[in-house]
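ARCHIVE CARD
Drawer: 12
Card no.: 0347
Subject: one protein chain, sequence and derived structure
Cross-reference: see card 0346
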Amino acid sequence: MPFTQRISACVITLNEERNLSRALTSLQPVADEIVVVDSGSTDRTEAIAREHGARFLVREWTSYSDQKNFAAASASNDWILSLDADEELSSALQSSLLEWKSRPPQAEVYEVARRAWYLGKWIWHSGWYPDFQRRLYRRDAAKFSGTIHEALRFAGRPARLHGDLLHYTVQSFAEHEAKVEKYTTLAARQMYAAGKRSWRAAVWLATPWSWLQNFFLRGGFLDGYRGALIAQMAARSVRLKYTKLGKLVAAGASEPGERS
């Protein structure tokens, strides 16, 4: 009998009717089960999930890591494929996963290259590609941690799958600005909670360095005006993060986190 590895695909959601159908459609050829963990959607997210045959669970929001770990714990299979609602498996990645399912695994965690669609075009430089993400893993060997930019924590080295994970980041520059505003608030609170108090030097030094790094050293200029915007927003993120940390230091108190 041929070897077949079973996969549970896990997606966390909050008002994702714009993206969810695309993500779930791409998962259907490779996933033996799809688990959607929602944190209180008021749009058609639940209906779309059920239309695609997903198990739909509701959990009050605490953090990205908590939601993803809950989804993995609720799955029927030990191998978890974690996808964000604004992502999609490319056809090459689907083929790679189907091939992987047919043979014994060589690692406990696998990473894939992620390619971003930004303001109407794929981004190939600017530090955004290949942007390797660890998304296929044994749930008894790895768990997500981190308040923002959550990542899998595990022992050993990951293996790699061929094919890109497609990421539909933002639809407009205004959406990018709003995302930066929210993420930097979370980042500042996280730094403050971790005991970081130095911020002035970073505002003046790390901010321009971030722009130079993304636009020149990481080839952002090859992405045209989109690369210039990415470098601009990366630098703005650094400035806002440390400026907000400075305000927390001055106030002498931190606030509870919020979802971005």
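Annotation on reverse: The chain has seven helices and eleven strands. The CA atoms of residues 40 and 257 lie 17 Å apart.
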